[in-house]
Amino acid sequence: MLNPTDNGYDEELDGAAERAPVSVAQNLADILAFRGNLIELMPEDERRRLGAEVVREYRIDEASRKPWLDGVERAIKLAKQDPEAKNYPFLKASNIKYPVLTAAAIQFGSRAYGAVTRSDQPTVTKVLGDDPNGLKAARASRLTAWNNYQLMYAMDEWDRGTDELLHTIPVTGASFRKVYWDASLGRIVAEHTRAQHVCVHNDSPSFDRAPRQTQPIEYYPSEIRRLIKLGKWANHKYDADDTEDSQKAVRYLEQLRFIDLDGDGLDEPYIVTVEECYETPVRLDPAFSKRSMMVTGMGDVETILRESPWIDYNFLPDMDGSVYGMGFGQLLESLGAAINTMLNQIVDAGTRQNTGGGFIAESLRLKGARGGVMQINPGEYKFVKADGQALTNSIHTLTFPGPSPVQFQLVEFLLGAAQDITAVKDVLTGDAPSGQAMGSTMALIEQGLQVFSTIYTRVYRSMRRELRLMHRLNGLYLPAETYMKFQDSPDLQQMVQQGYDIRQEFDLEGMDVAPSADPKSVTDMQRMMRAEYVGQFKGMPGMNTAEIIKFQLEAAHIPKPERFFAQGPDPMAGLAQEKAKHEVAGEKAKVMKTMAEAEKINQEAENAALERGATIGMAGGMGGMEGQPDDTGVLPVPQPNGAGPAGQMGGQF
Could you tell me if residue 229 is left (phi over 0), alpha (psi between -120 and 50 degrees) or otherwise beta? Predict the structure, then answer.
């Protein structure tokens, strides 16, 4: 969305409004092509009617959210710890405001800010779907580099505004970012805008569906005169007649609303700027583009999607369905009041007990006592004109019991309930119990961060919408020369020479832009634990060791981790392959050794069996010769078929 004060103004077209016919019956193409101030095309009576409607309906919206605004003011006072005098139950009584809300806001903002910024790489462009040629991956890499440069180095207000936003939404419950293209700066502007300064009707179903979105803005007289002189605003009367301050700011209303400017019966979204005091419209700009128009096959416009410059950030959804979110300020209001009451009663009771007080009889005259008050320093005794009995009988000291132990217990109980709501535990603030196992500590941190992670996911969604809006604005208004100079890529220059349109770079079809932070892992300890888990896969077959090491370096917030890798093939991958080869060779050697040992055992068994068989055979043969000699005393002749005793020997050998 263009800044209403810098909507592509071209000085060469100055005066086009006077040359154009005064008619509202223009088609949408003519409206989008018009480079001047559209308010000049409206008749005077239509301008007055529009200005009156803008102011009247803004006040209706503002009245609808008054209860929410009152709650936000109380929450801000509580978070700021504003000192206030308290004279009950006695003058200058204690008025302590325990910083439970302040601590919760600081804890959330500190963790979320560190997770969002991620050094200088807050965004990443992701490839969706197939990418066989790697063209989408190359474009995603270029867009990631450009988006990170734009946010962290070209837009000074984005980093500062992110810090403010993340520290205020825990208190107020909602905040906004206004994103638009500023032609005078030649870049996108992303301003943090507090929720009190962006008005929609409180009963709207959502911020995007609210019929009107209004932001009151104050301009100084010097700025007003410059805008009128440049032709960006219509000449008008404004309330700047302050005799004491010649540069007193003048209040204007910048409102996104629907107007039927082309007279076709279908309202279109526009942003109109109106001077509030005199209800005078000074600028009118379309809040739509060709991409936001849905056209039927007959060429008729069916729907026009409005393009709002405001992105809403909600801390918690409102329980009553209000368009504005809830914060710790609303949730802790009654609990914080009870804690403060208990603490103040404890301090007041201690004050009463320590300072004492009572009654003095009028008959007793004490020198130096003024109004019944006599100050005695430690170790000091004062002379009085009265005996001891008269002094004792004339002074009555009231007895105050002091703080009650039950109150201390109650305060401790209430503080525990507040910490349960805000997820501010000792272990999350760096004060972990000594001697506790690392696994137990991590389990407590994981459990304690559940509330925080859920809230951060909502911030993540809103930031993704913001980045998409910035992506679209770059595609519409970013000069090609600026983008080409930043990339300084010969491949991209060759593509442009072949007819490639730089605007196609910012087409999100087939890819998406999102914060690089992980909403489920928001602390350094969580990231390092994940990196340690992934690190055990280094050197394993099929695993990319270089990517694992890069992931570990990024988890440790080491900038530009790619500078640690040598050019060419990944040496770690080669080592992993060599290691795998050695492991396979070792396994083969073990198998061969086992087979050799088994073969040796088998051979020894065979030899043993042969030796036992030979011994048995010889023993059997000798028995035949000695036990049964024939009548002639001649040794038996061996038989061919091993029959008889000789056959037994022949069978063995």
Answer: alpha
